[in-house]
Design a protein that fits this description.
The chain is an alpha/beta fold. It has helices at 16-25, 45-52, 68-81, 98-103, 124-131, 166-189, and strands at residues 5-11, 32-39, 57-59, 86-89, 108-112, 135-142, 152-159, 193-196, 199-202. The chain has six helices and nine strands. α5 (124-131) crosses α6. The longest helix has 24 residues, at 166-189. It is globular and about 50 Å long. 35% of the residues are buried. The structure holds 5-O-phosphono-beta-D-ribofuranosylamine (GRF). Residues 11, 13-17, 46, 90-91, 111-113, 174, 177 line the site of 5-O-phosphono-beta-D-ribofuranosylamine. 5-O-phosphono-beta-D-ribofuranosylamine is lined by residues 11, 13-17, 46, 90-91, 111-113, 174, 177.
Length: 204
């Protein structure tokens, strides 16, 4: 196998998607290796979980930086220092600057808890319920500067049930998030999928 792709996982909170990626990376032949977990919240529960798993962590808090650009430069420096080749956003609740996203063009993935392009942004589950959709789900995609856009790598669909609340729907979607994010990462890390322009090419 070619050398495993060095990944960073960026989080803001609980970190359950991060844990699903870390678990996948533990398989002997998995084509990616986590080199650093970065949080923009110093008290993110996910940070402690990462430390317990023995992964290097860093917390970079926005208020410690004068602007989004200086924050993103510091983030870029840390990622470069650790030899990061691909960034996985996993519940990272901060908008990245255009410059940063362009520097890492086609090297940032994100998971979003809806079937994009529906329900970009926040409160996806309540908005899905309010819209009366019968199915929802999650999407792993390459990141572009416009929020929750970029070539789609993988999606999973779940039913929306009559008596769902935002919480019950979120839990059903989350189980699928944990399933498809590691799979999508594997597709990217093995070069099974890649992007030409804004089109996803799959060799599967
Ligand atoms: C997930 O639902 C993810 O799709 C969204 O934020 C949530 C993060 O959860 N972007 P966790 O921190 O991975 O548990």
């Amino acid at each position: 196998m070619a050398h495993p792709l060095k990944i960073a996982i960026l989080i803001s909170g609980r970190g359950s998607n991060m844990m699903s990626l870390l678990a996948a990376c533990e398989a002997p032949d998995f084509p990616a290796i986590p080199v650093i977990i970065v949080s923009n919240q110093s008290d993110a529960p996910g940070l402690q979980a990462a430390q317990k798993a023995g992964i290097t962590t860093a917390s970079l808090v926005r208020k410690d930086y004068a602007s989004r650009e200086t924050y993103d430069n510091a983030l870029n420096d840390i990622l470069k220092k650790h030899g990061v080749e691909l960034i996985c956003l996993a519940g990272f609740m901060q908008i990245l600057s255009k410059d940063f996203v362009e520097k890492w063009h086609n090297r940032i993935l994100n998971i979003h808890p809806s079937l994009l392009p529906s329900f970009k942004g926040l409160n996806t589950h309540q908005r899905a319920l309010d819209a009366g959709v019968k199915f929802s789900g999650c999407t792993v995609h390459y990141v572009r500067y416009e929020m929750d856009t970029g070539p789609i790598i993988s999606q999973a669909v779940v039913p929306v049930l009559e008596d769902d609340t935002a919480d019950t729907l979120a839990a059903r979607v989350l189980m699928e998030e944990h399933r498809i994010y590691p799979k999508a990462l594997k597709l990217v890390a093995t070069g099974t999928v890649y992007v030409e322009g804004d089109r996803l090419i799959s060799k599967e």
